Amino acid sequence: MSNTETSPETWSIVRDQEHRYSVWSNDKALPAGWSKESFSGTREECLSEIKKIWVDPRPLALRQAMA
User: Fold this and answer.
1) Which of 1, 26, 52, 57 has CB atoms 3.0–4.6 Å from 10's, for a disulfide?
2) What is the CATH classification number for the domain harbouring 32?
3) DSSP per-residue letters across 2-50
């Protein structure tokens, strides 16, 4: 089987409490500590959107400590 055959059709952007982003298949339950953002689409669309919105990849606690 290829990745294309096993890849779900729709993905969502998810974020944890440290404001780190990832993509998550819509056909799977979210892991504890992650919440779904409003954007969904193909995996590639979600990754592209993450590049636009996640401009500072440092965890939230570190950003707050350095402020």
Assistant:
1) 26
2) 3.90.820.10
3) -HHHHS-S-EEEEEETT--EEEEETTSPPPTTEEEEEEEE-HHHHHHHH
